[in-house]
Amino acid sequence: MNPLLTVGICVRNGETMLSNAVESILRQDYPQERLQIIFVDDGSQDRTPKIISQYTAMLGQRAKAFKTSWKGLGYARNCIVDSADGEYILFVDADEMLTPGYVKTQVEVMQKNPQVGITAGVFKIIPGNSILNLEIAPHIVNQKSFGKPKSFIWKTDKLVGTGGTTFRTVAVRQVQGFDENIKGAGEDTDLVLRIKKAGWLLEPNAAEFYELHSGLSKPTDLWKKYYWYGYGCQKSFQQTRNGFSFPRMSPMAGLITGVLYSFPAYRFLRQKQMFLLPLHFGFKHTAWVFGFMKGQIKK
Hints:
With about 300 residues, this protein is α/β, with parallel strands linked by helices. The chain has helices at about 20-25, 50-60, 75-85, 100-110, 130-145, 170-175, 185-195, 220-235, 235-240, 250-270, 275-295; strands at about 5-10, 35-40, 65-70, 90, 95-100, 115-125, 165-170, 200-210. The protein has an 8-stranded mixed beta sheet with strand order 3-2-1-4-7-6-8-5, sandwiched between helices. Helix 5 (about 130-145) crosses helix 10 and helix 10 (about 250-270) runs antiparallel to helix 11. It starts with a strand and ends with a helix.
């Protein structure tokens, strides 16, 4: 009655957060003997390999570990896809933490509908981190407004990322896994698009998890994050062009989007800082455009 679920963790230089992610998996109310954890260390230069070794020794046959040399997320995630024994694969990034019932909810959604190939929960607010909460507030608005990842502004369905998302293993393998030519951002969008095109459903669920965005807390962190996203999206533009709209990523569109999100965000979260969303969106969209242009120049 409790199918085996594989938790995949791809990490690079994650020594400050990796243990929190793993401990949140070990605190799940799902039977631990039905959980497999696969680590992929993609060229870490800190204490990450030592932390992985400690957990693999503790977990024994329930854990596997691989080490690569910065071959990109597509390759790293495929290491998990190729070696997963679970009926389902839940990807958890090193900067994420699951609430105790998260895995159980993912499995229940999948078990109820065999046509569901992808399911994912929702973000949970982090006390005391303004920039991080501004970052996740729109996702909370989308979920509370529609009960699924759908843009509050554009009324279009939104694609989920990989972190915190559960995939039916057979669906991922049917589409040949992740595109290993996508070494930066965009490998998750590409995979989700191909799985949906193959006829599988994307079903959201209400389980909550914490997304720390690598400790996002300063404007410089936000700039680096979206510069990297823009650069990565440009590199994978041909594969993921249906996953985002360039005009909607312009700084002006960001300001407008921030204004429109600020009022429902305040209504749901009751935080005055939500009225900073126009500046937040405008700033990160500017970083995205600069990253995208940099990718164009280096093509």
